[in-house]
Amino acid sequence: MYTQQPKKLIIINILDILRKYSDAEHRMSQKEIADILENEYFMKVDRKAIKRNLMNLIDFGYSVEYSEASRINNKGEEETIYSDWYLERDFSDAELRLIIDSLLSSKHIPAKQCKDLIEKIEGLSSKHFKSKMKHVCSLPTNVQLNHEIFFNIEILDEAIEKKVQVKFLYADFGTDKKLHPRKNSKGAESQYTVNPYQMVVANGKYYLIGNCEKYNDVSHFRIDRIKKISLTENPLKPQKKVKGLEDGLDLPKHMAEHIYMFSGKSELVTMKTSIKMAGELVDWFGDGVTFREENKEDGTVKAVVKVNIDAMRYWSLQYSPYVTILSPQSLVDTIKNDLKNASSNYEKE
């Protein structure tokens, strides 16, 4: 025996059924909806009532789609048949899969929080989408990740909106694979007072672009390394008073110049590389790369980018078999020394 639900819940339950079971590839008949109402919601509803409630959902603004067809009934009269009902989704399955894949590739979201987020995203589609995802999982990790990350994002978002400073501890991983707050020369935990301007994602990690109050240049902070964050009542330092942000934050330009989110100055860098590397350079530097002196005989080209020097040092070592830095000379000398030291380290081993 079961308790019969009030009729006013029919429309709510029909909407719930469409959300759970229908999409453009899985359309439902009124009979299928009636069967689920009876078996799962303990409501016996005739097809006319189902159709009436479906039409009411459309009148209320829900994106319920259906097909129409004409037929001649037993009385010889033409009537319209409504079928193939489904709820149109805000996101396609491909879009949801892209969001979930981004979460799975994230290196800073703890596994439990990542799993909870994926379950919420799966709920935006039908059960048919969820069944496709059952074999997808993230790689296990024994590294202690920062469970404060979502709280950090909320506080930083509020601080940017209110134009106030924040205070926090900044942590690094130790050899025990745990996060430890940085300490000052006296051994006490260092508290950072920061002017937050923008949150960005780079290389699968969340960063805060801001300014340490005691300095006058731009700083980048990994949001998953921030601990014990709090809002202050101190007003935000105007960007025009920060070196490098005098004309405001041009985010695409800033991201292209800071490919690894190192802080410091940017300079024009000229390199020689293979024409086949053009795609890699565009991937990394976007419209910020300029190609010159293309030589089809030997397959080389010169490329010029404006980029953070420390980031370029790291990048050029990564691509050293394919790229030769030509200028500035200070960077050329630094990379030569890095390669010499690297070779020496291998010789010692």
Give an overview in words.
- The mean pLDDT is 84.
- The radius of gyration is 29 Å and the shape is elongated.
- Helix 1 crosses helix 3 (47-59) and helix 4 packs antiparallel against helix 5 (111-122).
- The strands form three sheets. Strands 3, 4, 5, 6, 7 and 8 form a six-stranded antiparallel β-sheet that branches. A four-stranded antiparallel β-sheet has the order 10-11-9-12. Strands 1-2 form a two-stranded antiparallel sheet.
- It is 36% helix and 27% strand.
- Strand 1 and strand 2 (78-87) form a beta hairpin.
- It is of the alpha+beta class.
- The chain has four domains: 7-87, Orthogonal Bundle (Arc Repressor Mutant, subunit A), CATH 1.10.10.10; 93-132, no CATH class; 149-249, no CATH class; 266-348, Alpha-Beta Plaits (2-Layer Sandwich), CATH 3.30.70.
Q: Mind sketching the topology for me?
A:
Layout (H helix, E strand, L loop, with lengths): L9 H12 L8 H11 L6 H13 L4 E9 L5 E10 L5 H12 L6 H12 L4 H6 L16 H14 L1 E10 L5 E3 L9 E12 L2 E8 L6 E4 L3 E10 L15 H7 L8 E9 L3 H8 L4 E6 L4 E9 H10 L4 E5 L1 H20 L1
Antiparallel strand pairs: 1-2, 3-4, 3-5, 3-8, 5-6, 6-7, 9-11, 9-12, 10-11
Summary tags:
single chain; 349 residues; alpha+beta; Arc Repressor Mutant, subunit A; 4-stranded antiparallel beta sheet; 11 helices; 12 strands; 36% helix
